[in-house]
Input
Amino acid sequence: MKRSLWGACLCVGAVFGADAAPAASLDLSGLTNGTILSTQNFSDGINGVEITAQRRTGGKQLRPGVAALFDSAVEFAKGKASRDKDLAKSPTGQLSASQIVGPGISSPVNTGTPTADIIIIQENPCGALCIPDDNARGGTLTFDFTGYQKGVQIKKLAIFDFNGFTGKQAVDDIVLTRKNGLTEVVQLEDYITGGLQHKAALLDFDAMLGGNPTDVVSLTFNTRTSGGIGMLEFAPVPLPAAFPLLAFGIGALVVVGRRRKKVAA
Output
């Protein structure tokens, strides 16, 4: 009896003792301006994140698109030669207090310097590298976290140069898809209001969502106009380190049970 209890106690204690994983973010710092991001896998050595894009056309249909890197420091140095002068600036269009109507919304600090790495939906065709320019009609950027077996929890997201027209069309929305197939739709017009043009916002999902889901397998940013994502922070949900111990403990219980049956026979 002592052996079976020890096996069970060892496994249960280890499972419940698993530590939460620290927040992670996509590292784009080593990539060249104009890099096509939708052909890459961003890996931490074990898991991976893949990015896909859809481009909205003049008829508002979504077509396969390209996610590209817009290095605003490089584009800022180009001056008038940059294809997108709005994104090349420091965060433009700080939100006023009256425009923030929901929790978890703030404006990125305007430091007077370019924002650096921004993920955009490319407007024009690309060769090996894009001449970065975000699509004026928007589209979708999807981040696939299925490389993380138990999913992730979205922590923060920074969006730049986004536009919205309250009363005419929905402001950009974000869709979180969970492992069970359910979705959590974040309509930004529930958090930000007023005439919006070339705005920047930092979204804190822990503050925005009362029960921030911890099993997200994909995030889709749906924009109706221009704009890009400057930062995505997420916390991988760790696999309990004790899964092998749990299997061992259960196996030990089975073996002990079978031995007892044999002895009793």
In short: The longest strand covers residues 152-164. The radius of gyration is 23 Å. The chain has a mean pLDDT of 78. Helices lie at 2-16, 72-78, 85-88, 205-208, 243-264.
